[in-house]
Design goal:
By secondary structure, the protein is mainly alpha-helical. The chain has 20 helices and 3 strands. The chain binds heme-as and copper (I) ion. The site of heme-as (HAS) has 36 residues, from helix 8, helix 10, helix 12, helix 13 and helix 14.
Amino acid sequence: MTTALPSQSAPSPALPGLDTATLTNLKKLTQYYAVTAFLALLIGVLLGPLQALNYGGVNVYEFPLLKVLIKSYYQGLTLHGVLNALVFTQFFISGWMLYLPARDLNVRPNMRFAWFTYLTMTAGLLTAAVPLLMNNATVLYTFYPPLEGSPVFYIGAAVMVAASLLVAGQVVGLWLSWKRANPGRVTPVVTYMSVATWLMWAVAALGLVVEVVGMLIPWSLGLTRGVDPLLARTLFWWTGHPIVYFWLLPAYISWYAFLPRQAGGRMASEGLTRLAFAMFLVFSVPVGLHHQYADPNVQNTWKVIHMFLTFLVAVPSLLTAFSAAASSKTPPAPGGRGVVGWVRRLPWGNASVTAQVLAMVSFIFGGAGGIVNASMAFAPVVHNTAWIPGHFHITVGTATTLTFMGVMFWLVPHLTGKRLFAPRLALASAWWWFGGMMLFALGMHWQGLAGVPRRAQVSASAQQAAYDSMNMALPKLLTAISGGVLFVAAVLFYTVLIRTLLSPRLDDPESTPIPTSEAISPAGQNLREASLLVRRTEPLLALTFAALILVILVYGPVIAPMLANYQFIPGQRLW
Ligand code: HAS
Ligand code: CU1
C-alpha cells in the first residue's frame, strides 16, 4: 500500500497555519539564505583553482596582480575553506531546514524572529570577513591555536554560530507547538529529519562555543597570557566531526524525501529513515578523537573508543545507501533489465536528479575513504597528507554541495515562480562539477599516499628536489586539470543560477511543488498504531538527552586532565 507522506498537513485548529502573506515572506527569507550561501560559494570556488594549481606544482601566488588581493597561499586557503565549508553550508542549511519543517507542519513561524536571525548571521559573516580579507585572520578554517587571528574574526564566527542555534531553537519550537496541538500523532518525516539534525547540531556546537567564547576570544583580546592548544583542538573536534553531518544530513533529507519522487520512485521505508536520523542524533558527536589520533597526551583507550563509535556512526550512512538504491529502483520507477538496468533508466536528462545521483556516487568513494581515515592502523599513513582534502572534496565538496546545487534547480523556481534558465547548461554543470571533483580526489588521494602534506605550499617548497623525486607527475597533472574543470563547472552553474534569478517571474511559484515522495512503507499518522521502530524513535528530546550523556561519558575523562594541566601558550602569526 502506498500512502502520501503527511506533508503540508491541514492546519490544526489550535495553531495558526501558513497564510499567503507569511508563505510569501518565508519564501523570500529562504531565497535570501540560499542566495547569500551561493554568493559565498562563488568567491570560495573562484579561489579553488589556485589551490589545485599549487598541488599541480604551479605557484600562482607570486603574480603581482593576485598579490594585491591575497597576500599568501595560506590566506587564499583560509578564505577558500571558511567560505565554502563554513559559510556556504550554514546559510543554505539554515534557510532549507527552516522552510521545510514550516511547510511540512503547516505552522506559521514568527517571521520577525526569523529575519532577525538571518540578519544576525549575516552581521557575523561580515564581521569575520573584514580580518579575513585584511590578512588578519589567516588561521585556516580550523583556526587551531597557537595560530592567532584578530579577535574580530573569532567574534564574527561566534555570532554566526549563535545565529544558527537560534534557527535550531525556532524549528524545535515549531515542532513542539505542533506536538502540543497534535497529541498522539507521528511527527511527519521531513520535520522529523530536520528536527533531529538541528538537535544534533545543538549538542555538537557546545564544544566550539566553549572553545571560542571561553578560550579564543579572551586570549586574542589579550585578557589571558596564552591558550592551551590541545584543549582547544579537542573542543574544536567535539564540534568539528559532527559539523560534517550537519552538512550531510540536509542533503540526506533531499535524498530520502524528494529525490525518489523526482526520479520516479518512492521512499523505501519511513521507519528506516527515522532510525538513520535517530542514530545520527545519538552517535555523531562522541567521535571527535578520530581527528586527533596523532595528538599526544590523549590516552589510547579513548582514541580506540572514539574509533569504534565512528564505525557505528557509519551505519546510518550504510542504511542510507541501501534506502537510496532501493527507493530509486522501485516501481513506479521504470524497471530496466538486469542488475543495473534501473540506473540507465533514471531520468538522466533532469539536471536536479543527475546532480544528486552524481553526488551520491561520489559519496560511495568519500565514505569508503572516511572509514580508512577512521581506522587507527591506516590513519598514520593518510593523516595530514593531501589524501584528506581529497576525502573532503568528495564528501562536503560533492555529496553535500552538488546535492544543494541540484536542489537549487527546483527550489529557485519553487520560491520565485521563475523558470530554470537553460536546463541543459544546468545538466552540464552537474557533470563538470562531478568530473572535476573526481579528478581532484584522484590526484590528491594519490599524492597523499606518497606522503605529500596537506595545507602546504608545495609549489614553492624549499625542498623542491625531494618533492620532484616523488614521481608525482601524473597525480599532479590530474590535480591541476581538475582546477580548470571545476572552474568551467562554476561558470556553467552560476550562469544558470544568476540568469534564473534575474529572469522575470512567469509562473505561480506553487506550480513547482516541493517534490515530496510517497513511501513504500509509511509510518502512519497515529503513534499508537505505528510500528515499534517509529514509536521508539519519536521521542527526539529523550534521544538528545542520551546523546548528551554519551558525549559527557566519552569526553569527560579526556578533557578533565587537560583542564587540570592547562598550558598557557602564547599566540603566533605565521603568514
Ligand atoms: Fe570525513 C576528515 C572519517 C564522512 C568531511 N572529513 C574530514 C575532513 C572533512 C571531512 C572536511 O576518521 C577534514 C577535516 C580537517 O580539515 O582536518 N568521514 C569519516 C567517516 C565518515 C566521514 C568515517 N567526512 C564525512 C562527511 C563529510 C566529511 C559526510 C562532509 C560532508 N573524516 C574522517 C576522519 C577524518 C576525516 C577520520 C580525519 C582524517 C585525518 O587524519 O585528519 C563516514 O561518515 C562515512 C560513511 C559513509 C559511507 C558511504 C555511504 C554511501 C552513500 C551513497 C549511496 C549511494 C548509492 C548510489 C547507493 C559508508 C550514502 C545510488 C546510485 C544510483 C545510481 C542511484
Ligand atoms: Cu570526523
